[in-house]
TrEMBL record:
It comes from Salinihabitans flavidus. This is Lipoprotein. Keywords: Signal. Residues 1-19 form the signal peptide.
């Protein structure tokens, strides 16, 4: 299989699988999203973890 055919296959598979995602549900758990989700109130600027580089 040529490199271009592989790239086309990967691109097609990515687009095909991403089209199956339901924007009204969480992708892993499958639970329905709602405006009252506690995730929306999380402050991403709070950092209590120091990276260990």
């Amino acid at each position: 299989m040529s490199m271009y055919a592989r790239m086309a296959l990967v691109l097609f598979a990515t687009l095909f699988l991403s089209a199956c995602e339901d924007p009204n549900r969480y992708p892993v758990s499958g639970e329905e999203c709602s405006p009252d989700d506690p995730v929306k109130t999380i402050d991403g600027t709070i950092t209590s973890c120091v990276p260990t580089v």
